[in-house]
Amino acid sequence: MNAPLDLVVRHAHVATASDCFDADIGVHQGRIVQIGASLPAGVREIDARGRVVTPGGVDAHCHLDQPMEAPVRMADDFDSGTRSAACGGTTTVIPFAAQAKGQSLRAAVADYHRRAEGKAHVDYAFHLIVSDPTPEVLQHELPQLIAEGYTSFKVYMTYDDLKLDDGQILDVLSVARDHGALAMVHAENADCIEWLTRRLEAAGRTAPRWHAHARPMLVEREATHRAIALSELVDVPILIVHVSGREAVEQIRWGRAHGLPIFAETCPQYLFLTAEDLGLDDSYQGARCVCSPPPRDRANQAVIWNGLRDGLFTVFSSDHAPFNYEGTEGKQPGGQEQPFRHIPNGIPGLETRMPLLYSEGVLGGRITLEKFVELTATNPAKAYGLHPRKGAIAIGADADLVIWDEGERVIRNADLHHAVDHTPYEGHRLRAWPACTLSRGEVVWDGQFHPRAGQGRFLPCQTPTLWARR
Ligand code: DUC
Ligand code: ZN
Ligand code: ZN
């Protein structure tokens, strides 16, 4: 006789990226082994009658304990960050092992593993950030790291300490092409931002709200087009991260219309915040919402919703970049209000990403449940070589599951599980929240957080399966 199932999630309304159906889900040793009607009793049982069950979220763009220039420090490490992820229905995170200029990539990866070890409550993989593409990096380190399971890397077109010039980006894209990896591009024109910032500073316009004026959509549009051209030249797919509004969307549509394999990501801040959240006057409060690209306006939010609905966007990520508002390490570097140039860029969002999209997207009638699963779990897993182990409810997949509770809830930072002292969504009304999150068959959240520090495993990534390789 077969060994009994360790767990049966019974009477689930299962949602996948392709179908919704009613079934029981049987789990053995952390994996889904049976899906069907009236499965035999499990050692444990969870009754999901009347509830939607989706794959656990894959947050493919978040920053945890990423080294920053002193005094700035991220508020979340792998402990608090993955705790917060689990409580919001995310069971896989992919943060960034960032190469400092002059550092070897290998050293950056080793350092990042030390930061994660013994802390993660859910599974994790790493993207790389390539800021110094030396011949050694291009010829040896990157190819070796790709072969070892680091199959995606981000390049920046802005930020002095990270940005690459076009020739360097072409070099990195060539490695991605030769080795089947995926390059993610932060597309904003650095020189335009610097020129605008200096003019704003000369006019005394340094409050947080001026950040949005230093990074208008034009700078994102130009860089997005350039990134598409660079990818066309090398003949390699790219993924444009954190797309904020109409002008970048138009460039991506243009690339697609020309048959180019351009993938795109957007984030909750471009659906739920506007530039007004950076302040209507010169008060400093808006520093909380300083991120790049900045949030735009309501018309652009509608453009982003359209792109989610019609397939323009491949993935929906949080871009969780956790900085406290108060204190010496976050939005007030050195403990003081600063000109916007010096405000650390980024907002928290790991825990609220899935509930916001489920509430406003699915229950708000803007996207289907299948599209929600595709954007938040299946496609990110495919894009970064984790599918079908992650992002799927299928035989053999990890039993990473979310059982949803559809009911009113108001976002309060006091109820969240990150270590950040604010959420940009304070007071936002939701229509759903995870009732239960399972990571490889273990309950990590059921209204209470069940710590599993160190049980989250590192996941080496395969090459992406979003497109066919020639
Ligand atoms: N880019 C990111 O991807 N995250 C935070 C800030 C930024 O500019
Ligand atoms: Zn970025
Ligand atoms: Zn980011």
TrEMBL record:
User: Sorted alphabetically, which keywords does the UniProt record give?
Assistant: Hydrolase, Metal-binding
Signal peptide per UniProt: none
**Which stretches make up the Amidohydrolase-related domain?**
52-426
Q: Name one Pfam family in it.
A: Amidohydro_1
User: Is Hydrolase set as a keyword in this record?
Assistant: yes
Q: Which domain of life is it from?
A: Bacteria
InterPro entries the UniProt entry points to: Amidohydro-rel, Hydantoinase/dihydroPyrase, Metal-dep_hydrolase_composite, Metal_Hydrolase, Metallo-dep_Hydrolases_sf
Presence of the UniProt keyword ATP-binding in the record: no
Q: Which cofactor does it need?
A: Zn(2+)
Instruction: List, alphabetically, the PANTHER family matched.
Output: COLLAPSIN RESPONSE MEDIATOR PROTEIN (PTHR11647:SF1), HYDRANTOINASE/DIHYDROPYRIMIDINASE FAMILY MEMBER (PTHR11647)
Question: Which family is this protein grouped under?
Answer: Belongs to the metallo-dependent hydrolases superfamily. Hydantoinase/dihydropyrimidinase family.
This chain's protein is named Dihydropyrimidinase
